[in-house]
């Protein structure tokens, strides 16, 4: 008759295999979060900011002469 491994294990004890599996899962999730933060943190701030526009004051356009003011031919 074969005995199961779980029957020999004391209640509340963590096996080496469970510990390795849990550590692997935590490390994998940590690396995914780190990668996501690294990608987001490297976005240049200018991608979100509105550039300041140097607006030159407009020069007044010369007034157009009315037909009465045109030189007579």
Structural notes for this entry:
- It contains two helices and no strands.
- By secondary structure, the chain is mostly helical.
- It has a domain at 14-42.
- The longest helix is centred in the middle third of the chain and has 26 residues, at 16-41.
- The radius of gyration is 38 Å and the shape is rod-shaped.
- The chain starts with a helix and ends in a 32-residue tail after the last helix.
Output the keywords.
73 residues, 41% helix, 2 helices, mainly alpha, 0% strand
Shape: rod-shaped
Global structural class: mainly alpha
Mean pLDDT: 76
Low-confidence stretches: none
Spatial gap, N to C terminus: 127 Å
Give me the number of helical elements: 2
Rg measurement, Å? 38 Å
Largest sheet: none
The proportion of residues forming helix, as a percent range, comes to 40-55%
Helix-strand string: HH
Which strand-content bin applies to the residues?
under 5%
Instruction: Give the assembly state of these chains.
Output: single chain
Please report the total strand number as a whole number. Answer: 0
Blueprint of the fold:
Blueprint: H1 5-8, H2 16-41
